[in-house]
Amino acid sequence: MTSERAQITDPRVRKLADEIIEAQEREIAEMRYLIGDIELRDDAAPPEIFEGDETPEVASLQEALSRTVIARLDPEPMPHAEADDVVPPDNPDCEFVRTAASDPILVARAGASGPAQGVMKLNGELIALRSEGSDGFDTLLAGPTMTADGVTMAVRHLPDEEPETENGRQEWKADLVFELEQGLTVGYRGFYRCGG
Description:
Blueprint: H1 2-5, H2 11-41, H3 61-66, E1 75-76, H4 80-84, E2 93-97, E3 106-109, E4 117-122, E5 125-131, H5 137-142, E6 145-148, E7 151-157, E8 164-166, E9 169-180, E10 184-195
Antiparallel strand pairs: 1-4, 2-3, 2-10, 3-4, 4-5, 5-6, 6-7, 7-9, 8-9, 9-10
């Protein structure tokens, strides 16, 4: 809240404040998802957590910069202009956001034919996605599973939650589960918005 309310004029400080806000929003959305998952599972044993190697290796700067720590990857918010570069902007769309005011981490659009297309941003790169299942906007409304080689993003409406309508768009409280085949699964609880 301090970073959001501050009248920051220095661009370096503003950039740092925006990064703090994004990190906190991501962590809060992940915590809401985990609390919901715990409530659903009730007495089930919690899954094991992979902590990784405790002892770092000595490496060159190039080696260190070339390594991506899979356990620390998160879908990044992206402005709509970036999503428009990957999926046609004139089609009906849906998006998943972590907070009501944040940029989406998933944008999905239904085409005239074929599977719905989507986009996510990971490690600074835009990743094109395709829906699993039937074609059209109804697939998006139901909460799609979007995939690309090695990655899945699945939107799931919360049980017993009815959508609210604002400015012609429907909005549900929903979970988004981000899964990499390389061994990472992370969930976020946020909002799923769809409009024609």
